[in-house]
Amino acid sequence: MKKGFKTIALLMVVMMFAAVAAACGKDGAGSKVSVGIVLPTKDEPRWVQDEQRFKDALSGTKYTTDILFSQGSSAKEKENVETLINKGIQVLIICPQDGDAAAAAVEEAKKEGIKVISYDRLITNTDAVDYYVTFDSVAVGAAQAQYLVDHAKGQGEPLYLYAGAATDNNAFLFFQGAWQTLQPKIADGTFKIANSSEAVALKDTKDLTREQMSKIIGQVTTNWDANEAKNKAQTHLTSAAADMKGDVAILAPNDGTARSIADVFGSDKAITSYVVTGQDAEKASIQYVIDGKQSMTVFKDVRTLVKDAMGMAVDILDGKSPETTGSYNNGKVDVKAKQTDVIVVDKDNVKKELIDSDYYKAGDFTGL
After folding, report:
1. C-alpha to C-alpha distance for 319 and 92, rounded to whole angstroms
2. What is residue 21's predicted lDDT score, i.e. its pLDDT?
3. CB–CB of 65/35 below 8 Å?
4. Do the Cβ atoms of 119 and 93 come closer than 8 Å?
5. Cα angle vertex 138, ends 132, 141, to 5°?
6. For position 302, what pLDDT does the model report?
7. What is the pLDDT of residues 104-150, one digit of tens each?
8. Which residues contact residue 55 at a Cβ distance below 8 angstroms, ignoring those fewer than 6 apart?
9. Which residues have C-beta within 8 Å of that of residue 16, sequence separation ≥ 6?
10. What pLDDT sits at residue 283?
11. E strand or H helix that includes residue 197
């Protein structure tokens, strides 16, 4: 019997030790993660590069980070936030897959007293967002549109409009900036809209409501998907009348869609020339710019955006008030924001802005 009691006692000690170790693991190890970061997907180079930049930005501080990817799923995004909450994070930096859907996830973080920084894309319709770190998205769209205006060829030039995803608040901001710049040139006949009946109906309205923008974006959305952009461009060109070809202007929302659209327009013999916009300064698009296949890209120096976001997180952890430069209404509250400047890059300044600044290496490209 004594042996039996000894075995039971030993088991109880082991179980108690395991329980204590588990509790310590949750509270001790978890509390070591200061900043939780959730990014949309590992399938786009931009976000993989951001992962390393975030790690670099925090190196040399006493704080630690854990970075998780949502792989295009709002459900996975919410799961990631819950995982990070359990690790004891004090600050959450999150780039939402879907601005509205992310609200539920950040509301859970807010309940735990975690400060929430919306990164690059704004989380909408919730008061659980403390700060927003962004490029000036309206300025991005305006820069794209201004490039088309500056390179317009006479009167009546066909204008093809494309937009990002209707689930991404940034897509609306980009389009807002673009439309406000393009509309006067549509109204005076410099451009004629080729691929959106909703845009034609609103051609005399400079400041569109969100509902009006939704109608246009619904017709010309690419969902940030290169294949969808390609299919839409092919459909538009197939149905275009002869007077909607020749020299054309194309508002493409980002580099991935710009390359697909450029390939379609470049292969149509009835297109004499095209000017196509982009943004993000992706390597593949920089090569397209050098080769004359893509006209421009809006360079958003993500190094600066990452530093701004992580600097804000460290300020919060240090008990300081982060510096902000403006605010954005997310449908529920005005979110304090830090805005990062953008740079227009084309063939003329690509070397200066991207190679000389050490963003890319000259050896990454041909024909420089």
Report:
1. 15
2. 44
3. yes
4. yes
5. 130
6. 87
7. 999 999 999 999 999 999 999 999 999 999 998 899 999 999 999 99
8. 65, 67
9. none
10. 94
11. helix 197-201
